[in-house]
Amino acid sequence: MEEIQYIDWNNSIQILKKAYEANLFVLIIGPKGTGKTSLVRDFAKSMNIELESINFSLRTRESHLIGTKTLTDGTVNFDEGLLVKSMKKGDMLYLDEINSAEADVLLRLDEALDDRRQIVLKESTGEVIKAKEKWFVIATINPLTHTGTKELPPQILSRFPVRIRLEYPPEEMELEIIKKHVSGEHDSEIIQAIKLANTLRQAAAVEELFYSPSLRETIAFGKLLDKDMSPKEAAKYVFGNVYTQWGDIEYQKVNDIITSMFGN
Fold first, then answer.
1. Which band of pLDDT confidence, cut at 50, 70 and 90, is reported for residue 145?
2. By three-state DSSP, how is residue 70 classified?
């Protein structure tokens, strides 16, 4: 399968390059499905830097970052976590959805991210691990309206002095992104789907709806058209049915919008 290149519609890669050269960590802020992970991967590739990733959740523990002791054939070893490995190698570290992490995990991260760029392996020998000079960290956060996210403590925010705001792209740019993923000529139908997605996104932003569709969904719509599904059906399966999770009233509200845009 051909690899899809990230379309840098708001000059984010250039900002990341300048931050990297200045040795400043970066925070990318934006809702799910706006291409945050694709942006980070393409930046790492453009710089020819190895990328290590940690996806945070309520189940992420300090041991995932730092490491754990193991017993093999009577010998105690220490298996290093991704944070320690990344610091020692001087790679790029991607902290995805960092505001889903628990307080104790953020505390250990804060130790590594301050100006000294070092961490004490109290779980092992007490050795001080100091990051290599070019170690670079990018973190992403979702808005607080997303389930499971929390407000980041000020001291963690201060570790990422460069902040990129990544929103949904303009309609014409979203069309170009989708066309990289589909083979057929469906421009007019895809433009309608983008308008539908933006209507739902705007409603979710003012809490009139519970869910905001992402770029993944508009891409999925285009892919279903490639498989000869009608635009109305594709809109139903991609955009409409998810709202049944919040009951018939929510679903009917969205279904009425779909019918108004794609017909009966």
1. low
2. strand
Same domain, 39 and 113: yes
Which of 165, 183, 206 corresponds to the end of one domain?
165
Count of structural domains within the chain = 2
Average pLDDT over residues 127-150: 82
What sections of the chain are H helices per DSSP? 12-21, 36-47, 62-65, 82-89, 103-113, 154-157, 171-179, 187-205, 215-226, 231-235, 248-262
* ∠ Cα 49 54 57 (to 5°): 160
Q: Domain range holding 30?
A: 12-165
Determine the Cα–Cα distance for residues 97 and 225; give it in Å rounded to an integer.
32
pTM, two decimal places: 0.83
* CA–CA separation, 27 and 37 (whole Å): 12
- pLDDT for 25-69, tens place per residue? 999 998 888 889 889 999 999 999 999 999 988 788 888 888 887
